[in-house]
Design brief:
heterodimer, A: 8-stranded mixed beta sheet, disordered N terminus, B: mainly alpha, 11 helices, elongated
Chain lengths: 339, 289
């Protein structure tokens, strides 16, 4: 799996440990992310999969210090060995955009309608790399070319409303890559786009990874997106990681009932389409605060007594390191036939 | 050339400008406004009568083009046309300057308060509330007592009041803008708060601000008129539309022309500014094709 474009480095590029994110709301504290450990190696693509509200986006917003004002993060986030959680905004600003870039879900509103594409793209370059307006513009044009925007030099002078959604997402990706970041966090980069455009954008991300050795975190609810691009997959549910592993293992041998249910919801091309598309029954627990027991309890067909009593922790599967292949389910040892 | 402009580079601002030019009422209002402004600025060249000169042979005489007083003269024998044009300079200057001051302070104050949020926002907006509660007339009279009557003080006094509304409007805009994805994208790109406010928040808040500014100009002109009418405004021999209207009202029965002409100019200007503001609001509303 390791195709190794990564430069030699002692530790992982991004190392999240014991991260908690909570929001103070009028209804009390809402815990969006609970005790998450996660690593991303240099040059690696990690897919983070979960349904809406599973905390997958907040996890990375918290890591980058971009939480809403009522959000609080605790734990540890290290980038290249250096703690970045709780850094003052001034120092974070030197990391954001330069070492870690983000691409967001909605390309229609991610560009400022009053600024030309060139202005928004070169903004980052001039800020982080101190390039002159001329050089920055040239680099921006090259990058637009690279993300296969036709007639790039002239598109630079366009305003966002003159570009299509797919084109805008290309611009966002080009902007994110301009400073050659070590890590690109792509938050549902294809969700708002047509399927055909989706494939192009994913190709683009794959290319960026080979071209620049950029590590990519791909946040999505679409398992199909992850399958083609990611090396490793992390499945989140109700603010916790419930399963993780290399993409092949996870798809061929999903261990957590939630992962299995998610995979069961993907319509397959090689099978007849059922009259009704499968769905996971029930709802995730409100605001990630189950009183006791497993968060997936109410929706799990295999739940037993123990699931009601205590919340399962992440355990390594088949004797492997929990950081590599793990699932958080009491039933796994029994159902999976392991030790 | 035609094709290129269709492909790339038509800004939302240019679109709004195009829509404004299609709005006949706004366009006419703009033209009339420009004519009034030009008359006030250049008029004294075409009608070279000093506004303070007393014509002893024509005290309070009705309008008479042949005699060289197309708008008549006032109770002191001074030419009304010359005085209206000179008064217009003061009124328009007060209107523009005070609006500009309110624009600068209001936009800066409101956008910072809105973007910072939390305690900073609360403190800044309470300051606005307190200033708002200050009785305006009391404030002006106080200024006059301390510093004497001075046209600069009128700018200060009116500007100090006019920016409060602007700050509130900009803050409201900022609150909604700062939640938009492109602000988040800018933050994720490592831009500092000051740069985000300057480059991303303010340009997007400018639509309503421009509209409100065009509506502030008439408000300020009226305020100056009120001050002058009360005897707190510009001092003789300088004049403004407010002063002239005040004089006109006092002599309304014997010499209606003293009221009609300056009041006509003021009313036309206010009308035009309101039409222009309306037109701008329509033009800047992107939902309108």
């Amino acid at each position: 799996m390791d195709r190794g474009t990564a430069p030699c480095r002692a530790g992982p590029l991004l190392e999240v440990s014991g991260l908690n994110v909570a929001f103070a709301t009028e209804d009390g504290e809402v815990r969006a992310v609970r005790d998450v450990d996660l690593t991303v190696a240099a040059g690696e693509v990690v897919g983070v999969v979960g349904e809406s509200g599973s905390g997958k986006t907040q996890l990375f917003l918290a890591a980058m210090g971009l939480l809403a004002a009522n959000g609080r993060a605790s734990g540890s986030v290290r980038l290249g060995g250096e703690e970045i959680l709780g850094l003052p905004a001034r120092r974070l600003n030197r990391i954001r955009g330069a070492r870690v870039a983000m691409v967001f879900q909605n390309p229609m509103t991610s560009l400022n309608p009053y600024l030309r594409v060139s202005t928004q793209m070169t903004e980052v370059l001039r800020l982080h790399r101190g390039l002159s307006a001329r050089d920055a513009r040239r680099r921006a044009a090259e990058m637009l070319d690279l993300v296969r925007i036709p007639d790039a030099a002239r598109r630079l002078d366009a305003y966002p409303h003159e570009l299509s959604g797919g084109m805008r997402q290309r611009v966002m990706i080009a902007t994110a890559l301009l400073c050659r970041p070590e890590l690109l966090i792509a938050d549902e980069p294809t969700t708002a786009l047509d399927v055909t455009v989706q494939a192009d954008i994913l190709d683009l991300l794959a290319e960026a990874r080979w071209e620049f050795g950029t590590a990519i975190v791909l946040i999505t609810h679409d398992l199909g997106v992850v399958a083609g691009l990611a090396d490793r997959v992390v499945v989140t549910y109700a603010g916790r990681i419930v399963e993780r592993g290399p993409v092949r293992d996870l798809f061929h041998d999903p261990r957590h009932p939630y992962t299995r249910a998610l995979l069961g919801c993907v319509p397959r091309l090689d099978a007849d389409v059922p009259d009704e598309l499968p769905a996971i029954p029930g709802q995730p627990p409100a605001s990630g605060d189950p009183a006791r027991g497993c968060a997936f309890l109410g929706r799990c067909a295999e739940a037993g007594d123990r699931c009601r009593r205590e919340e399962p922790g992440l355990r390594g599967l088949d004797g492997r390191d929990p950081a590599a292949r793990a699932s958080a389910c009491h039933r796994d040892t029994a159902a999976g036939g392991g030790p | 050339m035609e094709v290129r402009s269709a492909v790339a580079g038509r800004s939302p601002g240019a679109d709004a400008w195009r829509r404004l030019r299609r709005n006949r009422a706004a366009l006419t209002a703009g033209a009339v406004l420009a004519a009034i402004a030009a008359a006030c600025l250049l008029g004294p060249l075409l009608h070279p009568v000093p506004p303070g000169e007393v014509f002893w042979d024509a005290i309070q005489s009705p309008p008479d083009i042949a005699a060289g007083h197309p708008f008549g003269t006032d109770a002191n024998g001074r030419d009304i046309l010359a005085r209206t044009l000179h008064g217009g300079r003061v009124s328009l200057a007060v209107g523009l300057a005070a609006t500009l001051v309110s624009l600068v302070i209001g936009v800066a104050w409101g956008s910072v308060a809105g973007y910072a949020g939390g305690r900073v926002d609360a403190v800044m907006m309470r300051i606005v509330d307190v200033l708002y509660a200050l009785p305006f007339m009391f404030f002006v009279i106080l200024l006059m007592v301390f510093f004497g009557r001075n046209i600069l003080l009128i700018f200060v006094a009116i500007g100090a009041v006019a920016w409060l509304d602007m700050a509130r409007i900009v803050r409201g805009q900022t609150l909604s803008i700062k939640r938009l994805p492109y602000i988040e994208a800018a933050r994720a790109g490592g831009l500092g708060s000051a740069a985000i406010i300057r480059r991303h928040v303010v340009p997007n808040a400018l639509g309503p601000v421009v509209v409100y500014a065009t509506l502030t100009v008439p408000k300020v002109i009226l305020l100056e008129s009120l001050l002058s009418f009360l005897g707190l405004g510009v001092r003789e021999p300088a004049t403004s539309w407010g002063v002239l209207i005040g004089d006109g009202v006092a002599n309304m029965e014997r010499a209606p022309w003293m009221l009609v002409f300056p009041a006509g100019f003021l009313a036309a200007t206010l009308f035009c500014l309101n039409f222009l503001g309306d037109g701008l609001r329509d033009a800047l509303d992107p939902r309108d094709p």
